[in-house]
Every structure is written in structure tokens, then in C-alpha cells.
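## retry 2 of 3
previous attempt timed out at serialization; input unchanged, resubmitting
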Amino acid sequence: MAKPTQERATRLIYGFHAVLGKLRRDAGGILELYLAEERSDVRMRDVRRLADEENVRSIQADNERLERMVGTRRHQGVVARIDARQREVKLSDLLETIEGDALLLVLDGVQDPHNLGACLRVADAAGAHAVIVPKDRAVGLNATAAKVASGAADSVPYVTVTNLARALREMQKAGIRVIGTAAEAPQSLYEADLSGPVALVLGSEGEGMRRLTRETCDERVHIPLHGSVESLNVSVASGICLFETRRQRG
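## retry succeeded, writing output
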């Protein structure tokens, strides 16, 4: 007697940024693609074209159905059902697929899963192309981090690297400026030029960036603090840095 097949665990992602990124990086992980029948603009045509090229099944749906699926109106007419199993993303592959000016968030040694999940959520909201972390001295994308991320663990590429300093140099060779954050940096975040391809590096909750990471950065900036606290939670600092970059880019 044949054994019953185990049902595959799936999740939903939505929005052009998340779905297009998934199509470009891991189209095989998309099981079904739901597209709003009401939309026929350039962005939707790009999604349809890429889905056809990658042989991803697409299903026409109205906006009400898409809203029921994801529980929000902010789906932009694009919803994908994906394989929930985490797939490893290589830095070299990521750098080859980025279109436009790169915006990367690099976390050096974040060990609190709640902070990691919040950083992923902020990165998704700011439209970052990926979150990059070292394999050692970091919490890893566990169940707690994924839950706090509220879906961003599926929509934002999560890249683990063996040697963070080497990975930063690889980004620099690809034309990406590496900007670290440190309380003692002389230049304010708001004085820095954040245009063009940028990787923002934030250190761990207590110790900040490690020495080699700090020395590899092209420049360092600080976030001005005007109250009595001496530092910010890493996810809060990530949000400030990412959205200041977005503000400067208009």
C-alpha cells in the first residue's frame, strides 16, 4: 500500500518587490502566481513576462480574492504561493540579479531573534534587496525571527556568508559602497551621501561592528541622538538608515 504523500508547507508573499525578487532568484519556489485581472500596466506586464519565461503558473484573480488571501489591500495585484522551506541564497547570485542601485542591509553579529525579525521587516518595508549576515556569532533565521518578521523572511533574500569582511570586499568590487554605523564616527548619517549602490552595516546590540568589519567599510556614520539614551535598538537604527537612504534617493 502506497504511503500518503506529505502535504508541502507553503506561504504567501505579495507585492511587486517581493514577487519579482522571488521570480528572479528562485522561480522554482513559486507554486502558484495570482495576478489581478484588473491590472495591465508596465509592472504587471513585467511580472507576466518573467513568469512565462520561468514557466510559473499564473492565475487571474480579482482584487477581492487577493485581499481575502493575504488579509490586506496592499497586495498591489500580485500574490504568490511559495514553498515555505528556506532556500540558501548566495551573495554572488544576489549581486548579479539586482537591478538599479543596490540597497543592502548587513548585520554584524545580531544575536537576538526578535531583533533579526524586526530588521527583516524593516528591510522589506524600505525595499532593501537583501539582508546579509555572518554564519558565526549571529542568531540565524529561526522560527522566532521568522514570526517577528511577519512574512518578510520570505520576501527579503537572507544571505549568510562565512567571512563577512570578504563579503564586504565582494560588494565593493561590484561597485557598492559599504557604509558602517558607529557611535564614534565623526560624520552624521544625515551629512553622508547615500546615493548610488549602498550596503549599510550595523553591529550587534552590545558591541557594535567587529574590528575587521569596521576597517573594511568605505566610510562610517553615526545617528545623532538628542536624549539621554546612548544607543538605539539595531532594528530601529536599521530603519533610520534605510529610510534616510530612500529619502535621499527621492
